[in-house]
Structure formats: C-alpha cells, structure tokens
Amino acid sequence: MFYESTGLPRRFAPRNDIWRLTTTLDFWKRQNAGDVMFDMLMKNTLRNSLILACSAFAVLVLAGCGIFSSDDFPGPPPGAGDIDLNGVPFEQADYDLFLAYLRGKLDTLPNANVSESIARTDVNGDGVTLSIADLVYFGSVRRGNAIPPEQLDNSSVLIPISRGLDTYSASVPLGGALFRMLGGRDFDRDTLINGLQYHITESSARRESIVIVLPLDGKPIPAKSSLYAIGHLVSMEAATSEGIVLHPLVSLIPPAVVLIGNAPNPFYPYTRISFAVTIRSKYTLAIHNSRGSLVRLISGEAGGEMVTIGWDARDFPTGTYFYRVRVGDESVSGKMILQR
Length: 340
Fold this sequence. Notes:
This protein is of the alpha+beta class. It has two domains: 2-249, no CATH class; 257-338, Immunoglobulin-like, CATH 2.60.40.2550. Helices cover 22% and strands 34% of the residues. It is built from six helices and 16 strands. β15 and β16 form a beta hairpin. The longest helix is centred in the first third of the chain and has 21 residues, at 45-65. The protein is elongated and about 65 Å long.
C-alpha cells in the first residue's frame, strides 16, 4: 500500500483510497524530496497532470455527492502538536520545528523519532501530515482562536488560482500558502512583502525552492492578493485561516525548457550553463556579447533531464555576455559576466 512507503505509523495513514489518490502527489513531494520530485516533474509530466486532473474531478464529484466529507477524516493523532516530543504540545519550539520541516529540513530534530514527530504535525485531524493547513491551524491554537478539530468542515474545496508573472492570486481569502518551485541555490530567507510573511528556502541538493506565505496577525490574506513565488511551479498548497485544506487549481505542466542558470558568475575563464529539457526535443544554446554578436552556438538533443554545457572563455574579452536556450518555440535567457 502507498502509505507503507511514507514512514508513518499505519494508524496515521489516510483511511480510504479516494483520499490517498488526492494526496499521493503531496506525500511524494514531502517524503521523497529531491531526485524523486525532479524525476516526477521532468520524466512523468503528462502522467502527473492526468493524475491531478482526475483527482480534482473525483474530489469535486464525490464532494457534490456527499461521499467525501469530514466523516472520512480520522482526527488528530495522540500527542498532536507535540512535535519536539518533549511532552508539551503547541509550544513556540513546536511551531518553529514544524516550520523547519515544511522548509525541507527533516533533520532538524536530532536523535529523535522523526517519523513520530512528523505524524504529530496532523493537528487539524484531516489525516495528512506536514501541510500548510496544519501549520495555519497550529498558529490558531497558539493564538487561542482555533476551532475544535471535530468541528472543522473538511469537505474538499477547489479554488481557482490566477497565475501571472511570478505571482499567484486566489479567488477566496487564504490563511496561508506553500509553493514548491524548481530551484538550485542554497539559501534561507525570511522577509515581509505587502504585509505578508515569506519564508523562502532553496536547496541545490533537492533541486527545489519552497516558499511559505503567511499573514502576520493570523487574519485571512484577502482574496485576489498577489503572492510571489519566483521560478517554475512544481506544486501549490493552500488553506483557510481556520486550517481547512483548499485544493488550488493551477496547471502543473512545466514549460519545454527550464533555465537553471550558470555558475560561477562572474567567472574566469570557465563557467557552466545548466538547463532542463522536459520533453524529448532538440535544443540550441546561443551566446552573444554585449553588442549582440554571436560568439558561440551549441546544439543537441535531450529529454526529461538536466543539461550542463561548459564554456571556456579565456580567448574572449572581459564584459557582459548573454545566452539563450531555445527548445521548439520556447526560449529562456540569462546574463553572465566574464571578469579577469
């Protein structure tokens, strides 16, 4: 069974096949980050999109029929909220550890039963661990305005997400959102944008960037607010301010080519340009100088994989160079600086 690969005790696993179908992609991304996520994105794009579409349709139909309801959810596990396993639930330390888990740092709690710790993150009792809905509900418990888990309406709600240039906006108010993007650098950043708190973590080892968006005061994020997540979307989670799961309807089909970037930059004399080709296609990499003259043209074929091409520029003058990768009708570009 699927839940046997999650590392969670059997009693915390989703109890019916319908719920497992709608959450399989989320569990894979949370429990097997890195290569599994990248392979799913690059090699199984069509299958993933089909699964997502079928899952959304199934949830919508079943919710309309009254089959998919709050009665299908098991309730919080024993010890819910005691994530650091010290016997005291819903402490600030528990919240900070939960946030670290969501940011992909599953080794934050040393010398402890991490599987049991993760199981206790299902504080809203919907049968799913490590979700943005659980984090939002955790915050409401700490603020003292949480609805008892048994009173939460966990019927599935599908919400359309409008997508702009590195922005996403929901048609309804949100209590929080989590974006998983394709990424490659290593950094952690906490910042405020338009009164919202952003927790950003990017890992080159997992090849992903995680962006968590939360309101500062626990009040709902107004509908149609612009949420910023730079890069190429892998998945999105959302929740109401009460901690109820929302199912965003955002296309997960990636473009034909995804630019990773070049490193080092600035460089001398050698740099590597990396990009991913999501479907079997021919590609071209063109490098131009600051005057627009073509200085290097490389072509090849790839599919469902990352491509890295080295450029030895020791015979070229210092300055700014531009590169463009083209796959079919799509192209991506970047800038690099040759500096002695």
